[in-house]
Amino acid sequence: MLLGVDVGGTFTDAVLIDADGALHTAKVPSTPASESLAVLRAVELVLGRAGARFPEVERFAHGMTVATNALLEGRTARTALVATAGFTDVIELARQNRPHLYRLCEAAPPPLVGAEARFGADERIGPEGVLIELDEDRARTLCAALRDSRPEAVAVALLHSYANPAHEQRIGELIGELLPDVALSLSSELVGTFREYERTATTALDAALSPLLGSYLARLCADAAALGLSEPQIMQSSGGLTGPARAGAHAALTVLSGPAGGVAGALLAAELAGETDVACFDMGGTSCDVCLVAAGQVPETAERVIAGRPVALPALEIHTVGAGGGSIAWRDSGGALRVGPASAGAEPGPACYGAGGELPTVTDANLLLGRLPAEVELAGGLKLDRGAAERAVGELAGRLGLAPLACAEGIVAVAEAEMLAALRLVTVERGIDPRSFALMPFGGAGGLHAAALAEHLGISRVLCPRAAGVLSALGLAAAPPRRDVARTVMIAPGASSPAGLEAERGPLIAQALGELGEPAVRVRVRHELRYRGQSFELPVDEEREPGRPAAALGPQELREAFGEAHEARYGYRDAEAELELVNLRVSAWAAAPPLQRTGAAVSGPPVSTTRVVFAGRALETRLFAGQPAAGTSLEGPALCTMAESTLLIPPGWVGEVDTDGTIRLRHERRS
User: What's the CATH fold of domain 482-590?
Assistant: First the structure.
């Protein structure tokens, strides 16, 4: 049995795939004060639905937003930084660029380590080797001063430690002796590549978040063990799983843990549907995560910005906006209607949840418009209070001078504009025409907005997976273990022989395979290259099959592949320019768990009608109170209120349900 549990800002989802391949799902409200409570409730509920017991679970995969939320809310550990003397302020100086080009007074977020907690180590390593030896006595004095500052976590990022980590490792040993209970992050172990500011900032972020995540995972592991449940494997931002000890010690690896599970689920659903080009958006209660599947692959990046802070670690390219079902609608100082990024979250939640919420949200607006029928319970037996939604939206409508229904339509339109901007960012703004893609909504609220977003993008096909409401949890259950290692090499491939290049790759491959700890089924070597004099690199990938002799890329093959990538990106290549190999990154994957293909329900639910507002008009709409059966034909206007999600089919859209339970919609005028 395979179990996946995803903790979101509003709901916690669980998916269980039993020994026969049957899919069981559950959704419960999240418990922000103690997130593990909702995790165990969801596990207990889904096991009960499957008639299974805790010890029967073979693998338990977990994705969460613990680290991300702590970073956004400023709930980080008291952190100290050790850097080379004279370079302790790099974390505050940053890149000296403004956070926003046209908002001259907007400030960057303050560094996670204040000036009083930065310590300079008397040492220096340069290109030719050690320039200033690390003095043992001075190092011990520094560590004693560090201990007196009483940190909860320590980050160590010495100059050029990616090339020679000896000084950094020794300082780490001394800190471990004096402060054995303090979280410790070494940049050479975590990042391994150059660019001093990004490396230092990532290490500080890792140290600042690790105590909180480590404590959460230790508590969850203890609770799981007491129930006989297997130890949870944790989703990384890269889309692969790692053990709880490693994740707890290096929280920076998990800042996109939850969204990465959604991407894994989207890849699985796209493969089942036979689609290779899919624009995906995951709309939950708090936010909306957008990604692109192109040619069956999700782009990855080695550096991204989270809450205004760089994270120089492998991550899937996911763009997040504050437009979820619980996003709060408000009137700004200029009298305009705005939505998000603040969210009602799980406690108290939208006003219509009847748990004390009084502010209008996207969910309240959808309820007033009939897109969430009040008579249909949401996941977890949640009953919607239409009167509470009317009061919340009506109060905002009065301040805006609008009728309540017009205000509700405005709330939905503004939220969709936020999601549309995110989808355009990953397609049109990167030179990708979205019209040839299918749009895949998931998350509890994604299906309510999919058709409208598709029309704005010129997309004619929408795919709504059977498990759309819990697709992130399904992706977790299907994800493989993964390890990533990287090193800055700074060599000219043209001056190296194929054997010399392989001598650089070999140790990294061996390290990745060793850290994976189980047989690898796939190894990828990513070469980050640039023409000498350029500031940034382009990747050239080489796939390897473990256990077989490598057909390694040599100097000429690298130049040709880089030239093609450079021409595709910038429109030209330079046959005379010297090529520079800057970084090598190796990723290794173990086998993903085997999943059996399961069909949809064999019989459909009863169909009734309801009234849904479209463009100011209330239209009679067919209501499918459950998952439509395989082979069911659908024609808009229609509303499918499935177990954990709702799909709105506007006029002009038609479709059918395939044998896997995926609802395939197409626009009649564009098909």
Answer: Dna Ligase; domain 1 (3.30.1490)
